[in-house]
Amino acid sequence: MTLSQPKADLQRYLQSARDALLWKLEGLSEYDVRRPVTPTGTNLLGLVKHAAGVELGYFGETFGRPFGEVVPAFGDDAEANQDMWATPDESRADILALHRRVTEHADATIAELPLDAVGRVAWWPEERNRVTLHRILVHVISDLQRHAGHADVVRELVDGAVGLQSGNDNMPPGDRAWWEGYRQRLERAARDAG
């Protein structure tokens, strides 16, 4: 049995969420990583940009650890949802580089502070805005895993690719015909129930 190391365990799950989100961009065209595939405009590159903003706020500002660069999409005067899509002037490489710099900043915060370090989430209600690093790690892991799930669905809608991680799709075996039959069976069951 391996003994638990709480901070290392949390950081491993955080990194797993990051990796899952970034992996969903691999092999896609510039158009496909930006393409809005839901009525609310959800797209893969926007999810990565948003995730960078999440980590920047929670592991930077919350613990009084400024990032050191201005990121207009995350500023107080940013357009609504500006963090959820890439403008034509923002390249995939730019957003991935920003994400990398932000995760390095977040990882430094996690490494340098104890789990019981106290911070303040300025955008949360006063009665619950004092937090610990532990609570923020759990919150951010939950948030990024949620967005990794969004990315799973978006990627499947873009090109049919599915999976948990590179080399491990975590799906039952089946060819295209099997999946189509399975989907039709679910459609029939839904219609029969409804």
Please tell me about this protein's structure.
This protein is mainly alpha-helical and 194 residues long. It has six helices and two strands; from the N terminus they run ααααββαα. It has helices spanning 6-23, 30-34, 44-59, 92-112, 133-159, 176-193, and strands at 118-120, 130-132. Strands 1-2 form a two-stranded antiparallel ribbon. The longest helix has 27 residues, at 133-159. The model has no long low-confidence stretch (mean pLDDT 92).
Distance between the termini: 48 Å
Average pLDDT figure:
92
Residues in helix, %: 40-55%
What kind of sheet is the major sheet? 2 strands, antiparallel
Radius of gyration: 19 Å
Counted beta strands: 2
Spans where pLDDT lies below 50 across 5 or more residues: none
**Order of strands in the sheet with most strands:** 1-2
Derived structural class: mainly alpha
Number of helices: 6
Order of helices and strands: HHHHEEHH
State the shape. Answer: globular
Oligomeric composition of the shown chains = single chain
Strand content: under 5%
